[in-house]
């Protein structure tokens, strides 16, 4: 009961802080629109690079353009949601260095909610919009014998993938507390992870795919469930039911990420700045 009450406090605090930043950003609406359009344009350059690649080749690792667009749309949309919700976690190291993290510790609100909602940026909707547009195009273009299970699996992939990326953000923030910074290490697994998942597993070595499947299970964001949807061989010859375990993987990632965050807070010692 106490945990549920604490969760409710966190959600309420997050909502209030995020709302404050949204109202602030909407004060200058022209600037907001220009910034959001710029964000949409910059994130779209990744897919432009894929299009240029396919102007020279017919397939990549045996996957055609619509199939890779499907991977891309799933990865970018899921990551975009996580980035919108918890993308500010990478500033934690800077807060620790300048001493402002100590202020969050004495406020009557969960620290994770405060950090996650800090400088909440609606402009990040540009990434979600761009990823969704590519995903919709991919769904209309891929040659798939659609079934009810495959149709339902698409939104499940997006939601579960966002949850997995959120867990990585939280775990990365916990690592920043221990390391007193290391935001670039976190970015390597978050921003680097979404870039990795935009390409099929067949272009990577088996040892690398094994690590991304069993050690840091980003493969369950799109590689594994997308293989079921596209009737492709599963990475590492996983069983067919593995395509449906992304929600369980998300929960399995969230639990240790939460424990790591608590351990990080428990071990924190002010820098004295």
TrEMBL record:
Coiled coil: none annotated. Keywords: Membrane, Transmembrane, Transmembrane helix. It comes from the Bacteria. The keyword Ligase does not apply. The chain crosses the membrane at residues 32-57, 69-87, 152-175, 208-229, 241-261. Pfam families: ABC2_membrane_6 (PF06182). InterPro entries: ABC-2_transporter-like (IPR010390). The keyword Transcription regulation does not apply. This is ABC transporter permease. It comes from Streptomyces doebereineriae.
